[in-house]
Amino acid sequence: MPLPLVAIVGRPNVGKSTLVNRMAGTRSAIVHDEPGVTRDRLYQEVEWNGRRLRVVDTGGLIFGDDSEFLPHIRQQAMAALAEAQAVILVVDGMEGLLPADVEVASWLRKQPLPVVVAVNKCESGQMGLAQAAAFWELGLGEPIPCSGIHGNGVAEVLEAVLPHLPESVPDTAEQEPIAISVVGRPNVGKSSLLNRLVGSERAIVSPISGTTRDAIDTVIEWEGRPYRLIDTAGIRKKNRVDYGVEFFSINRAFKAIQRSDVVLLVIDALDGVTEQDQKLASRIEEEGRACVIVVNKWDAVEDKDTYTLNEFTCDIRAKLYFLEWAPLLFVSALTGQRTQKIFEQVDTVVAAHRKRISTAVVNEVLQDALSWQSPPTNRQGKQGKIYYGTQVSDRPPTFVLFVNDPDLFKDNYRRFMEKHFRQNLDFTGTPIRFRWRGKSERSVGRAVQKLEGSPSPR
Which residues form the EngA-type G domain (predicted)? Predict the structure, then answer.
């Protein structure tokens, strides 16, 4: 049974995201002293008093104004209420009761959900009770003073909402979702692609650059397997980013790469590979994440012929040569063209990213590589020797090669060794790492005997 869900709603700048972060014990939602920072639905898990639940943060609600993102924010809030079993209405105790609060409360009374009123920014006890008293006028029950910044009163808010939630029974056999982050420059179609994969308007889509700010997590199921899709903010050049909301958005995007199993690097087919795409690709490789390169807006490329796909492929491979191991997909988030193939590729690259090779097989491939190309010899006539190899970890697959002197193995031979391992062991879509460990022949012999006497890695 899924965890019960509580929607957090209110007008702009009342501290909804601060309160959500306090409940979850994280700083996942971006908090900034300006209205309209949160736009999409942001889910976090909360544990309180032995109970587990989820809360969904929403954007600030303003009725009677259809400018910029406000209609989209209202649509996202409605979607959150459709999923939720209860609502926490957050109001600002310092500013007092405003007409905008009354509007939101009137709207909530039309919804078939229990509502708890959390009066935020009540930093002191007696004064907080006085501040909260003004919100009895909303007619939604007892207003509870609290502070998302300092944490006081948050326990009382959770205690008030728990009786309205069904008990959840954790599924011990539940499969851990594969985490897929969607990254790229602004306006390449990341949110459109997320919505297409989810099958609903999960994220706000707009031609305005910087629409997505937080990293948006969505868990879906495809062919019986769970996936966690993470939409991220568009990443611009560092020198163009000012400290503020965009700075925090980009940091969230980089953290999304770190916590993902697979990264979908989205490229605009009309713009081709840019310098910023190359920097993102390098970041993905450095973090050791599996990757699928997704060329979006393929439907918008005009005058395509039998050579167009090959020309684009060659150009992308040349510019993203450090991701030559990543599969390439040409899709259209607008029409859905080939988007379902993304899950097939994700399964392939995740399997490679988590692959474990037995020590015996590693050394068979190693001996085959040595028979094709002997290790180099330096100017003094000293030749490199590879004694033994074994896989020491996965995610990404990492191998240790015991050699006489790591300095004898230059970049070209190391690239040859990686290419040979890829050809023989199929590491499609994942980086692989080699650690060249130098030891004396005697100590290597002892290491070999020790490894041969121990069970092979799984």
Answer: 4-169, 178-354
> Does 14 show up as a binding residue in the annotation?
yes
Structure confidence at residue 205 (pLDDT): 39
21 marked as part of a ligand binding site: no
CATH number given to 5-164: 3.40.50.300
- In this structure, whether the domain defined by 359-453 belongs to CATH 3.30.300.20 is answered with yes
185 has binding-site annotation: yes
Burial (CB < 10 A; 0-12, 13-18, 19+), residue 237, is exposed
Tell me: is residue 65 an annotated ligand-binding position. no
- Residue 255 labelled as part of a binding site: no
Are the C-beta atoms of residues 295 and 269 closer than 8 Å to each other? yes
Determine whether the annotation assigns residue 189 to a binding site: yes
3 state SS of 242: coil
Report pLDDT digits (tens) over 427-458. 999 999 999 998 654 455 555 555 545 444 43
* Contacts of 365 by beta carbon, 8 Å cutoff, 6+ apart: 420, 421, 424, 425
Query: Is 314 a known ligand-binding residue?
Result: no
Every domain of the chain with CATH number 3.30.300.20 lies at 359-453
Is position 121 annotated in a ligand binding site?
Answer: yes
Mean pLDDT score, 197-213: 50
Confirm or deny that 186 is annotated as ligand binding.
yes
Ligand-binding site membership of 419 (annotated): no
pTM of the model: 0.65
The verdict on whether residue 252 carries a ligand-binding annotation is no
pLDDT (0 to 100) of residue 88: 94
